[in-house]
Amino acid sequence: MLMAHPAVLLDLIEQYEALSALHAEDGSPESRRRMEDIGYTLCVATGTRDVDAALIAARHRLPGARTEDDSLLGSA
Length: 76
Description:
By secondary structure, the protein is an all-alpha fold. Helix content is about 60%, strand content about 0%. It contains three helices and no strands. The N and C termini lie far apart (about 30 Å).
């Protein structure tokens, strides 16, 4: 599997989180579509099928990530 460059992953994470913080999923059709597109791209770039898993996988591939650290999973 091809691996996305960490800079690309970081950019996608930041874009997705910014749209999420702005509640884009409840916004205009354009903002919802952009959020869906970024989520899909994250899934493809990380080989996952779900945005939450893609975000976790992408964060683990960033420089300085500790792969044994599960704190990126967040609290349930």
